[in-house]
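Troubleshooting: if your tokenizer reports a length mismatch, compare against these two reference records.
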Amino acid sequence: MIDGQAKRQLSERDICTKFITPAIEQAGWDLLRQVREEVSFTAGRIIVRGRLHARGKKRRADYVLSLQPNQPIAVIEAKDNNHTLGDGMQQALAYAEVLDVPFVFSSNGDGFLFHDRTGLSGQTETTLALNEFPAPQTLWELYCRHHGLADPASRRIVEQPYYDDGSGRTPRYYQVNAVNRTVEAVVKGQNRILLVMATGTGKTYTAFQIIWRLWKARRKIWTRTSRAGAPPKARPTSTAN
């Protein structure tokens, strides 16, 4: 055991390595498949003043936890032990809003402050000891209840993995949001879904991942694409028989 004074000498990265990561692993999370550390997901807002421009600060989450790759369900913001348990919560909540995840944690290495954005835990914020971090299935059950994915058939579709070509390419955070929200909307019976994405943001890649996951789950989907000023074009129905 390390005493309090020595713990306060540790850096934020030391706190992650010695306390937070072991607690996550002990709770049953697969560090290779379900846990990503120091995840940068925006390059920073472009700030323009007259003829000058600059980039704002990058957004980087200390931990993003996923049921499987590209299905994030929780973020953790870490601070060194000179901070209180919840000092990183506001920052973590901002990241969770952008990444569209319902479960938010802040830690200084003494434990966790857990913020449940779904409201299903009985109270919004709960203090947890290091050995009380929730298991993946615990958070996934809450996620499914919150999103109305009660029956096994719905979950089987939502749990279909993304297509992976082996190149290591990962979708951008807004593509993940679009794909996951669309698949969940289809599962819940929504027949018309409109995605609006700017030129150069990966519309084709996003549409492909949606079709791939639904096709693997044996669901039928029609897609229509359009350019500004041009009528939408119908695409053939994607089915699996």
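Reference record two:
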Amino acid sequence: MTIQTKTKQGVNIQEFAKQFTQKSAEQEQQRKQRIRKAVVKHLISTREITKDTEVVFMPSSKVVPTPVPKRRENSDFQKDTRFRFIDPTVIEDKEIMLKYLDWIARPRHERKPQLQKEFAENHGIHYNTLTAWKQLTGFWDEVKIRRDVIFRKYSSDIFYALVKRARTGAPREVELFAKMFEQYSDKFEVENTNPVQEIPLEQRQLINTALKNIGLAAVLEANNPEEVEGETQTETSAGEDA
């Protein structure tokens, strides 16, 4: 008995890829032909061309999309921590702005140069630009931050001068020293922690009668006009009944 075996024929990958590519190219060409026929048919139906018009389809070039730059949000601009109150997006020359803030925060005799016009000339910026910066929201808040830092170096000398004057017994300096270092306050508030208790009616009537007897009926009437009027009416009606 003879047994015959069949071996599976091997596949040529290169040949298969070539046939697949050719088939794909043919299908793409057929697809383009169908699109062109549809376009010509539409142009004839709209009477934009006639049947005798020769239509030439130009090869289309590949369109590469232009990348759109990512928009920077305000939070990205605010990462410049050198400014706390001014929006840095509205400032073109940030370095000059920082120097100008430091310049204007100093006393006039410490400014170099002395005049704003000279500052503008030295830094190559227009004088009106500096004036416009002063109108920006938060400009003077930025100046205050730098002024506090600059003037803080005088604190020790000022406090020492205050202490020297207070030790001589000068009243104003003593009071200021107490307020600054001893939490002294010349304003006191008295808080009544006892709940307000209403006086019974009988006692109020006795008090009112006593006030009338000593000639303070006018005071009583000014403070409690309704109550006094009620008592007067009661007395009048009692007299009529008598």
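Descriptive notes for reference record two:
- The mean pLDDT is 76.
- Residues 13-45 form the longest helix (33 residues).
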